[in-house]
Write a structure and sequence with these properties.
Helix content: 25-40%
Shape: globular
Strand content: 15-25%
Structural class: alpha/beta
Oligomer: single chain
Largest sheet: 9 strands, mixed
Number of strands: 11
Strand order of the largest sheet: 1-5-4-6-11-10-7-8-9
Radius of gyration: 19 Å
Order of helices and strands: EHEHEEHHEHEHEHEHEHEHEH
Amino acid sequence: MLRLLVSGSARGLAARVGVRPAVGLCPPGHSPSRWASDVPRNQPLSSEFVARSVGVCSMMRLPLQASPEGLDAAFVGVPLDIGTSNRPGARFGPRRIREESVLLRAVNPSTGAVPFQSLMVADLGDVNVNLYNLQDSCRLIREAYQKIVAAGCVPLTLGGDHTITYPILQAVAKQHGPVGLLHVDAHTDTADKALGEKLYHGTPFRRCVDEGLLDCKRVVQIGIRGSAMTLDPYRYNRSQGFRVVLAEDCWMKSLVPLMAEVRQQMGGKPMYLSFDIDALDPAYAPGTGTPEIAGLTPSQALEIIRGCQGLNVVGCDLVEVSPPYDLSGNTALLAANLLFEMLCALPKVTAV
């Protein structure tokens, strides 16, 4: 299902260090049974014991696994960028995000989340996409994700351009029915077609509406901005029932109150989080294909993702990181941190 490159030495390293009893991070003075079962859970390699330059390149240096069976959540790469309309390079996003994720640690002190004590998590490698055929790539992605969600595993996706969210949501909606959507982006991605084509990274959510994959009364788009083809570029979205929150309505303010409204709107039904890195201002995230000025800040991104705690999140993605335009690696580092925050916001994660 997924392409994995796992050396024998990597398996041995994971066996020695990457899988530990979940009681390892039990806070002082607390009973281990409160924080974990007796079943060992995968742990990221700690730089206290293994140098960051050591080991295969997996997300947070978690063990690589070929199957979603037995996992509560998994990081999955989708190295596709043939749906881009401007600067390419997002096919290299998953690899670069994994490289930068070596700086991440296992606990989130800001939220109290201890995800690796709550969930069995691994890196499932990359979907084997067809870089010469976008339609076929969507089929391959859909089939891979159908197996992941059918196993009860929540996918956290490393993109890849935003086209990939369409086949992912096909798989998610097949399992859960129409889902709510929190879409963080500079663009609405609800165009109908371009150059005669109805499938590219500007159309995924239009296609999702066409196929009934979304609960349109529970769709919120945050960070939208930029020049447009018409004076009313959001008419279609609002006619479908989407809430569109423009970037200018987020300037110079905390988004905690907004996320309280989003939580109320989403309720307890399944919802999906799709985060395009170009939602952030290019001063923070220059490595992307279609940057727009005057975007969100990293602290606002954290408020959005942390505001999803308590929601029934059934999948997440982080898309449009283009390493060729990310000379410092800061865009990929930011993306890796946001994916960790998504993991921390999943429903079954314990917060202390």
